[in-house]
Design a protein that fits this description.
Blueprint: E1 3-7, E2 30-34, H1 44-50, H2 60-76, E3 80-90, E4 98-100, E5 103-105, H3 109-114, E6 120-127, H4 130-142, H5 144-175, E7 179-184, H6 196-200, E8 211-212, E9 218-219, E10 223-231, H7 250-261
Parallel strand pairs: 1-2
Antiparallel strand pairs: 2-3, 3-4, 3-6, 4-5, 6-10, 7-10, 8-9
Helix pairs in contact: 2-4, 2-5, 4-5
Bound molecules: iron/sulfur cluster.
């Protein structure tokens, strides 16, 4: 298995991963994408909204604390993100499961349905690293409001990093003639978080500095992992979340931003 960092720009790997479409090579091995804090385009208004405010009506003191936390994030976040492309799609004979490489995941129907026509899947992980998380934890002890806002900033940074990685994988796949699905993670869309262990087994140990606890919680906590289906016949569903009642889902916000950008 190869392990290398690549700049965040779309390109096909030089080594081909055999695919049903034949001639177009896909990235092979494990790819770490080079992204800095400045690439994340963290959405200040989005964080204000998570905190329960419109940006313009946020109390001045809260706005100042938000700026303090964003300033610390710019210094302390150490984004790392990467992916590995494997053969993947709905598991044969099952409506509730996905096969990726040799592993079968009981994802339930939303994810299995989305990957029904996939030929490959990108297994991905991303983290902002431990430093900002540690600062936010210490802030919570001295100034609970700042700590609370810092926690929201950390989540927004991890979410923005996952968005950029998602965009990168989309561009890489497009350059190779493939479309991609939404991204899906254990713990969302009915997929048990316990399968996080199986997911990380497809990546090198300690990939991007992320480790798993027994309860499948990622360390650093501000990390995101999951899968994205790929193939000529898959599609991204902008309306997937409309009938779901998981209101604070990180992916819902990505889809809403994506839909608004069109
Ligand atoms: S909001 Fe969308 S992505 Fe999140 S759990 Fe529901 S269907 Fe899945």
């Amino acid at each position: 298995m190869t392990d290398h960092r690549e700049p965040c720009r779309p390109s096909c790997g030089s080594a081909a991963l055999p695919g049903k479409t034949g001639t177009v090579p896909l990235p092979s091995g494990v790819n770490e994408v080079s992204l800095g804090f400045g690439d994340l385009a963290v959405d200040r208004a989005g964080i204000a909204s998570v905190l329960g405010y419109r940006e313009a009506t946020m109390p001045e003191h809260f706005g100042e604390l938000l700026d303090v936390a964003l300033g610390e994030a710019a210094v302390r976040c150490r984004p790392r993100a990467g992916f590995r492309v494997l053969a993947g799609g709905r598991a044969e004979g099952r409506l509730d499961a996905v096969r990726i490489g040799d592993a079968v995941f009981t994802t339930q129907k939303i994810v299995a349905g989305a990957l029904a026509r996939a030929e490959h899947a990108a297994v991905f992980a991303a983290t902002i690293g431990p430093d900002f998380e540690q600062w936010a934890r210490e802030a919570l002890g001295t100034d609970p409001v700042l700590g609370f806002i810092a926690d929201a900033v950390g989540s927004a940074c991890a979410e923005a990093l996952a968005d950029r990685l998602h965009d990168h994988i989309e561009a890489v796949m497009a350059a190779c003639g493939r479309k991609i699905t939404n991204r899906y993670s254990p713990g969302y869309c009915g997929w048990s978080v316990a399968e996080q262990h199986q997911l990380f087994a497809l990546l090198p140990a300690g990939f991007c500095g992320i480790t798993l606890g027994e309860s499948a919680l990622m360390h650093p906590v501000k990390s995101v992992s999951g899968i994205i289906g790929a193939g000529p016949a898959v599609k991204h569903s902008d309306y997937l979340c409309d009938v779901c009642n998981m209101r604070d889902c990180t992916y819902r916000r990505y889809h809403e931003r994506r839909r608004a950008a069109v």
